[in-house]
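Hey, I'm writing a tutorial for new members on how sequence and structure tokens pair up, and I'd like a real worked example in the thread rather than a made-up one. If someone can provide the structure for the chain below, I'll link this post from the tutorial.
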Amino acid sequence: MQGESVDAYPRTVPEAARGAVRRVTVVGEDVLHRACREVADIGSPELGRLVDDMFATLHVCEGAGLAANQVGVDLALFVWDCTDEWGVRHVGHLANPVLDDLPAARRSLAEEAEGCLSVPGPYRVVPRPDHAVARGVDKDGRELVIEGQGYFARCLQHEADHLLGRLYLDRLARRERASALREMADLRDGVFARRAARAGELGK
């Protein structure tokens, strides 16, 4: 959790229990397609509430990660709660993150299916390095270095892309992107209905 190993952690993270669910933005909305602003109000109650709300939204949507612009806030902040292919669960948040430019010797390219809460429904294969290192601060200003392998590395890179105004769709060939958008049009209503039902079940 947050760069530190723990023996156990609640299935519903405390932030998600405290937070309120926010609407998830969808591809085509302007806030998703421009670079986010640096987080300046580190340590503020408002930032703490935003982190809580993002975790609550992520929990209801059953996602792996969520960037602030996916709840309509153009700040350089993302949260994650994901389990990698080795069964290790990763939970945390990062403000003003920067990804290290790793040398080729420390990474290889992995081609795996990827989805996005702001592209409800479709998954597409996206090549990404299998190792990532992200540096930033938490909501209270503590400096963090978060290292990920495999699926968690993919999650860190996916969320960092969001903060630059990029979706995984932008990494696809034009024809594949058009196919994903058509599939999204067919599936999105069902995805939204499942999210609403889960929010109701969780009292959110």
